[in-house]
Amino acid sequence: MYYNGSMKKDFTQMTLKDMENFDSGRHRTGADRAKNLSIKYKMASMTTAVALIPMVVLIVMMLFFYNRAIMERGKRQIEENIRIMSDRICSVLKNGELCSNEMTIVFSSLYNDRTMKQVTRDAKITSQLSQSLLIYNGIRSFVFFDEDGHFYTSDPSLEALESTIRSSEYVQTLSAKSGKTIMMSPLNNIMNQSDQEVITMGKHVINIVSGKPIGYLFVNMDKDNLIESAQSEISYYFLYDEEGLCISETATRDPIYNETELISSLFLNTPDTLRYNREIYLTAKAEIPDFHWTVIGITNLNKFNVTGKDLRFILFITSLITVVLLLISVIFSANIVTKPLKVLHDGAEQIAEGNMNYRFHFKTKDEIGRLGRIFNYMTQRNLELIHQVNEEATKKREYELALIQEQVKPHFLYNTLDIIIMLIEMNRSREASRVTHKLAAYYKNSLSGSEEIITIDREVQIIRDYLDLQTMRYGDKFQFRIQVDDSIKQSLIPKMTLQPLVENAIYHGLKNKTDWGSITVEGHLSEDASSSKVELRVTDDGVGIDPRELQLLNQLLAEESTSDQEASESDLTSHDASKGGSHFGLYSVSHRIKLYFGSQYGARIESRKDAGTSVIITVPFRA
Question: Across residues 105-127, what is the average pLDDT?
Answer without folding.
Answer: 90
